[in-house]
Amino acid sequence: MDKLSNGFMEEVVKACRPYTAQGEVIDHIPGLDQSHATDLGVTIITKEGDVYSAGEDDCNFSLQSISKVIILLMALEDFGKEVVFQKVDMEPTDDFFNSISNLENYEGHRPYNPFINSGAIATASLVNGSTVEERFQRILSFLQTITGDDEKVKLNEEVYRSEIKNGARNRSLAYFMESTGVLSNREAEEALDLYYRVNSIDVNSLALAKLGFFLANHGKISATGSQLIQSRHVRTVKAIMLTSGMYNESGTYAVDVGFPLKSGVSGSIVGAVPGRMGIGIIGPSINKKGNSVAGGQVLRMLSEKLRLNIFHDSTIV
Amino acid sequence: MDKLSNGFMEEVVKACRPYTAQGEVIDHIPGLDQSHATDLGVTIITKEGDVYSAGEDDCNFSLQSISKVIILLMALEDFGKEVVFQKVDMEPTDDFFNSISNLENYEGHRPYNPFINSGAIATASLVNGSTVEERFQRILSFLQTITGDDEKVKLNEEVYRSEIKNGARNRSLAYFMESTGVLSNREAEEALDLYYRVNSIDVNSLALAKLGFFLANHGKISATGSQLIQSRHVRTVKAIMLTSGMYNESGTYAVDVGFPLKSGVSGSIVGAVPGRMGIGIIGPSINKKGNSVAGGQVLRMLSEKLRLNIFHDSTIV
Amino acid sequence: MDKLSNGFMEEVVKACRPYTAQGEVIDHIPGLDQSHATDLGVTIITKEGDVYSAGEDDCNFSLQSISKVIILLMALEDFGKEVVFQKVDMEPTDDFFNSISNLENYEGHRPYNPFINSGAIATASLVNGSTVEERFQRILSFLQTITGDDEKVKLNEEVYRSEIKNGARNRSLAYFMESTGVLSNREAEEALDLYYRVNSIDVNSLALAKLGFFLANHGKISATGSQLIQSRHVRTVKAIMLTSGMYNESGTYAVDVGFPLKSGVSGSIVGAVPGRMGIGIIGPSINKKGNSVAGGQVLRMLSEKLRLNIFHDSTIV
Amino acid sequence: MDKLSNGFMEEVVKACRPYTAQGEVIDHIPGLDQSHATDLGVTIITKEGDVYSAGEDDCNFSLQSISKVIILLMALEDFGKEVVFQKVDMEPTDDFFNSISNLENYEGHRPYNPFINSGAIATASLVNGSTVEERFQRILSFLQTITGDDEKVKLNEEVYRSEIKNGARNRSLAYFMESTGVLSNREAEEALDLYYRVNSIDVNSLALAKLGFFLANHGKISATGSQLIQSRHVRTVKAIMLTSGMYNESGTYAVDVGFPLKSGVSGSIVGAVPGRMGIGIIGPSINKKGNSVAGGQVLRMLSEKLRLNIFHDSTIV
After folding, report:
1. How far is residue C247's CA from residue C227's CA, in Å, rounded to a whole number?
2. Is D175 a catalytic residue?
3. Spatial contact of D167 and D192, defined as CB atoms under 8 Å apart
4. Which chain D residue has its CA at the smallest distance from C230's CA?
5. pLDDT tens digit string along C54-70?
6. Which fold does the domain D6-63+203-306 belong to in CATH?
7. CB contact under 8 A, A275 and B238
8. Domain ranges of chain D
9. Spatial CA neighbour of D44 closest among D80, D86, D10
10. pLDDT class for C317, splitting at 50, 70, 90?
11. Is there a contact between C293 and C25 (Cβ–Cβ < 8 Å)?
12. How far apart are CA A243 and CA B116, in angstroms?
């Protein structure tokens, strides 16, 4: 087992950066373009409070699908497990994250889980606040508290405008859910807007590592000891991250990496090793499944060399 | 946190037995009928070597889908991870365990994972042995070694004949895989026969707990110290059990119970808490998804009261 | 072979009216309710110019899906076969008329044909006119010319408002097509509005019979000799009516009735026997597939007794 | 409108032969290979009893999917419409001819229609005869009577062996239908064997034209005046040919050609213009949907120039 250090982190980034060549940067999100094709940044925060970092850890990219983790945490805290999972199921699916077929075919027309687009939109209808703006500010404030950063962690207006403009598929999902009674017309419109906004919050690998550590630490802010989200809700979120966090490679990552993860098409990944550490990765070159190629490789190395796989604890006898 | 004891086990069984009324015993498998509707047996083996048991722990039922765990362990040991997962993927699916649509629609026509029927048949084509009989004897011997029982753990001939007679759906799956080149004609026929046989091995809750403990113990037999299956293969199997072990309730069990499980339509479940314990359950009343209703309730209680959820380790700070 | 007369028509309606008990009137469309459950009206116009009628032939109901025939005629006349069938295919489908799965899974994401909802919305984007209002007035005027009725054949404002209010599923279809590039954002919005409006035009069985006769007469108005739509376009529309005009019973009606038909969920049906006659039926009690039960029975009787099945011409030898 | 003559036929074949370059000959059926890539043979038989022919009208190829027409005729005559369509529906489908997904998903698990593989196998279980051999001889004799040819029209043993050897997909379909109760185990085995055999009967374009004429002539043999199949059953078969006879291009052919057709992957097509003529085509270069490219072009020309489209009778007024 290797020892964690900045030097070790540099080695990992060096070994994994060549994998960026196997993916492609998506170009329809403002801020993402070919100039970032070889970017790879990794940050780790341990239970001892140490921070290790390497690569382009200062790049800011929008949350994209990692928003789904934040929205689910907030919905669980606001409405509880019973209510949330009446609106959205918690089963993994083999359909794509933006699929609409399953909404048509699945019993009760519930989205399969909160980590596909339809599920995130449905979950976004369960955040308290009298207006979309108020709900968004609660979420932004929550994320700023977790990351301790209210400067870089903020709404990227350009990305938000782009989300609205290119949001036809998500609008289609929202109205489909209206047609089957999962959402009212007002809920559909507002949940969609909230979802676009949270997708558009800027983060870097440090912010993601802090989010990962918050999950690893069962919902408690270490500095203040404040339990922001009940630990049983955080446990629920981590379980769903393991079964459904990496799009249609979730099963492969459960085997190869073995701890809760959630990725976004901006090439970012948040990882939470329960009780041990949080990991934030940014690597914009993604594969066809939507996951950062080099970022995935970093996770495989970290899991192997630091023995992070939760299915392989210390041997019993 | 409760303390494990036979008394505690009795309480759990008493509290959960009423849930048997919510399921139904399937009646097309020899040995299973309404006379077993209220049966519920649970056995636990801990890393200290203690055995705790309650309820109808001496009932013998055929392995059914838990065969998939054994076949996968053997295939991984015989051919390695690369070869196995070229034939079958390791992604969870939202389709039913006996679904054939996904074989038609999924790229490469690979089964989604080794724990749906098509996947188990494909995996069964990767067990060494010059004849089906030889392969079966290797698997039976392996299971007898793990359970330390070569008396009760044996082929149930009546169940085997029933598997063949009622095996049209599985034959359809096998020939479909022949049609897409996943299996040759000979492989299809032989894998099908091996699969029927392993499904027909009789076990009780003690045998299942021993299997669970073998997985929890990373593939090593405690008594002899013999590493029967490489630990990285056992880790792989446990990860797939978590994402896909409980049919279309796998995601729900990942959240509610939080450790690797595999169920069968005979109402049996094997559980493995990595590094801590193995659990065997038999409760033939199953719900529409194919899982033991009372058995599931036992797992929820054990996870909660003994703190077995792997997403909720001891708090860090 | 029976002889057509008003007495014959009365007999047919009398024999078929009991079938109204096998269906149900949908209650979310203004003007339709249980008070119409036993309604059945039939009108026939022959090539000799004779009109035969029986039952509740004076009821006014909105066009609903029969709008799809009008929109397709107009799009073909405005843009030609090539352009129209680049946007929408002409193949029958086994999916429901409001299905969205096929838009996701079918190559090119084209709707299967112009007679499912997505296909009608796509077709509605191909009607000339600088505004939705102008396009609608062209269509309304066209239908008024065909039916010779500009009093009863007009927009039902109440139905139109209901279409908008309950239009979430159609909105979902339209935005899905925007997301795959079948429609631009402006096209999606405008086509949806035009579709809602044409669905909301009121007609009775005489108006439907006139539409049917217009199709049977290859697009020519008998009274004036004016060829409103080129005959090859009318031929195309009739072929699609035969393969796809009766929702998921189209194949059954091709066998049992054997000439081009199109039905709507208001229980109305238009029929065109090429070169011979037009048929208009209103019978609001519909089955689960969306077709008028008694209306279907009327068509079976007419086809049999008047020898209208186009697959059974006079015997050759 | 052109006049039918051998010269006219030569022109049609000359104009259409270049389209053979747009398709490919499938190479897994004995007798079919690249040497036939530019073959194109057409034969027409009119109600006056005249025979017109051009191109490679003397090539012998196996029936392949045109078998489905023969099997359905025989099943309807043996068991009647009610019984046949309890086992198989008569609705067009958008799935491929060898699809198995629809068997899993469609209510009642009936095949959609008798012209997809599963439907043909189900229909083949409804042919009278105490053994498969007896059933096959009845069908062969029937086809020999229709074509007046018991020399060339016979079982191709090599093709039959190939059908068995490469029949995994069809076996999969048959066993799936056993698993859902559509067929018993014995029916599945025997229907499969009968289906393989009828697929393997050799025909040429003259034989196909005679079959087409038999259908156009409503089931009566002109020479003897013998009504081999009741006319209402022939009408049923022609209707299904129009909605489902040309694989997933059936809708396109209904529009472009407009009369009942059935194609096979050997590149053969049978056409029936009700009351007027039978058409037989052989053109082994097929497109991805399974239809002869040049053969399709021949049908478009014939329909246009001889006015054969049943949706475009002589104008009324």
Report:
1. 29
2. no
3. yes
4. D312
5. 999 888 899 999 999 99
6. Beta-lactamase (3.40.710)
7. no
8. 6-63+203-306, 65-199
9. D10
10. very low
11. no
12. 16
* pLDDT at residue number B313: 59
Choosing from A19, A52, A112, A247, the catalytic residue is: A247
With an 8 Å Cβ cutoff, is A226 touching chain B? no
Instruction: Judge if B6-61+204-306 and B65-199 fold alike in CATH terms.
Output: yes
Contact at CB, C90 and D220, closer than 8 angstroms? no
Selecting from D104, D105, D175 the residue whose C-beta is nearest the C-beta of B175 gives: D175
Active-site residue D198, yes or no?
no
Alpha-carbon distance B26 to B38, whole Å?
13
Domain C6-62+203-305 adopts which CATH fold? Beta-lactamase (3.40.710)
Structure tokens at B88: 């079958």
- Cα B261 to Cα B250: distance, rounded to the nearest angstrom: 9
Catalytic-residue membership of A68 = yes
For chain D, the chains sharing at least 3 beta-carbon pairs closer than 8 angstroms are B, C
- What is the arithmetic mean of pLDDT over A64-81? 98
Q: Vertex A247, ends C111 and A25: CA angle to 5°?
A: 85
Question: What is chain A's Cα-based Rg?
Answer: 18
Is residue A25 part of the annotated active site? The answer reads no
CB A40 within 8 A of CB A55: yes
Using the beta-carbon criterion (under 8 Å), do A94 and B93 form an inter-chain contact?
Answer: yes
For range A161-169, the mean pLDDT: 96
Q: pLDDT value at position D108?
A: 82
* CATH of segment(s) D65-199: 3.40.710.10
Q: What ipTM does the predicted assembly reach? A: 0.96
**Which residues of A participate in the annotated binding site for substrate?**
65, 117, 163, 170, 195, 247, 265
CATH number belonging to the domain at A6-64+203-306, selected among 3.40.50.2000, 2.60.200.30, 3.40.710.10, 1.10.10.10: 3.40.710.10
> Tell me, what's the pLDDT at B57?
86
CATH of domain B6-61+204-306: 3.40.710.10
**Amino acid (one-letter) located at B230:** Q
pLDDT at residue A27, rounded to an integer: 85
pLDDT (0 to 100) of residue C267: 95
Residues of chain D with pLDDT under 70: 313-317
pLDDT tens by residue, A266-306: 999 999 999 999 999 999 999 999 999 999 999 999 999 99
Q: Which residue has the tokens 């090859």?
A: C232
Put simply, whether C307 touches D (Cβ < 8 Å) is no
- pLDDT tens for D58-78 read 888 999 999 999 999 999 999
B285 is known to lie in a ligand binding site: no
Subunit partners of chain B (3 or more CB pairs within 8 A): A, D
Average pLDDT rounded to a whole number, residues A79-98: 96
Low-confidence ranges of chain B (pLDDT < 50): 314-317
Q: Which of A12, A68, A125, A162 is catalytic?
A: A68
Which residues of C belong to the active site?
A: 65, 68, 195, 247, 265
DSSP tag of A87: H
Res D313: pLDDT: 58
Question: In the B/D pair of chains, how many CB contacts fall below 8 A?
Answer: 55
Mean pLDDT calculated for residue range C225-237: 96
